[in-house]
Amino acid sequence: MCARDIDAIWNTVYRMQLANHGAGAAAAIGLSGIDMVLWDIRGKLEGKPLCALLGSSSRRIPAYAGGVAFGYQDLPELLNEIDLAL
Description:
By secondary structure, the protein is mainly α. Helices cover 62% and strands 0% of the residues.
């Protein structure tokens, strides 16, 4: 089975696991990880970013950087964190 054929891999996993045992949390989490790896492999093999594989193109978008720390921060600390991210 080729890593580029993501649909075939999904169908195999569905037939062998999900159709028989259901899509419980462990199966869904495991399959999502496999899915990410397969798309990454396909992108690397084809020399394309994920957006191109899905039929789009890349474009610059503003990023949000806001206090991804444990707990809340005061406004001056958040502004300092934003300055550091830029």
